[in-house]
Amino acid sequence: MGEQSKTIIDADSQAYMRKRNGTFKRWSKLLLRSKTGTVGLLIVLFIVFVAVFAPLLAPYNPNAINPSSLHVPPSWMEGGSTAHLLGTDNLGRDILSRIIYGSQVSLLVGIAAVLLSGIIGVSIGLISGFYGGFLDNILMRFVDSFLAIPTILFSLVFLAVFGPSIMTLIVVLGLTNWTSYARLVRGEVLSIKERDFVRAARSIGVKNNKIITRHLMPNVISTFIVISTLSVASTIILESSLSFLGLGIQPPTVSWGTVLSDGRDYLATSWWLATFPGIAITITVLGIIFLGDWLRDVLDPRTK
Predict the structure, then answer these.
(1) Which of 174, 205, 272, 283 is most exposed, with the fewest beta carbons within 10 Å of its own?
(2) SS3 content of the chain, % helix, strand, coil (to 5)
């Protein structure tokens, strides 16, 4: 009888998850209907392709200095060269190659920081929403306290104390974005835990940790995906901002923020140094936002 009850509970839980997430075929059909979603997906796939195959696509080493080619303008301008399509910087380094290689670090930091945020936020949200009571109050007050800390100020202090590097940048960006996951996941859990399949699981003595991992977690994955997609965009911007201020990625490692920072002193004379990495950031962020908006429409039941 117990096994039969568990089978019924699992079937109900899986049916609810399928209803919310849909099938791959349905997603594909909805994606093709959404112009912004399609454009966003194509942009994201292109940026990922560039980052993965950067060594093959970049015409030069991003840190190769060429004293004979300082401040060469883009190829279509007077004095430009087809050898450097987007021009060179104050050290003769090829801008196109630096942008291509910069995509690796910017995407790595953005995705890794969001995963860290998700792990922390989803875990706290699941525990807080499921157990409720005193534990819920303590965890939510902790979240509120963390929200009161200015993100930029916290990031600057953290990086000043522990030193700027890729790892510390991922950690600080992950620690500044987890609160949104915790609050939204908690809200989802408060609703889901009152559904029949969760009540039935409790009635037959299923342990709390199994209820959380087998019944609650799969049903908040859609919320995590939507938040994560949009958070990657804001994280890339924040990473670029910190690198621009000199507290993010440090030379000789190349990121879009460092390339942008290198060109800030030459905006009046060599505008391309800062313009093209800025365009790369803008296009990438727009693509992620477009894709995130489409995922929100598909996965979030409140928009249906």
Answers:
(1) 205
(2) 75, 0, 20
> At 179, is the secondary structure helix, strand, or coil?
helix
Is residue 13 domain-resident?
no
Residue 285 falls inside a structural domain: yes
The residue segments making up the domain with residue 148 are 36-62+70-299
Q: How large is the C-alpha radius of gyration of the chain?
A: 23
Q: Where are the alpha helices (DSSP H) in 92-216?
A: 95-131, 133-147, 151-162, 166-192, 196-203, 208-211
Residue-wise pLDDT tens digits, 144-197: 888 888 888 888 888 888 888 888 989 998 888 888 888 888 888 888 888 888
- What is the CATH number for 224? 1.10.3720.10
In whole angstroms, what is the distance from residue 6 CA to residue 96 CA? 58
Q: Residue 234 falls within a domain, yes or no?
A: yes
Backbone angles phi, psi at 94, to 5 degrees: -70, 125
Residue pLDDT, tens place only, 86-126: 999 888 899 999 999 999 988 899 889 999 998 999 899 88
Residue 31 maps to a domain: no
Long-range contact set of residues 248-252: C-beta below 8 Å, sequence gap at least 24: 248/159, 248/164, 248/169, 249/105, 249/109, 249/164, 249/166, 249/169, 250/164, 250/165, 251/63, 252/63
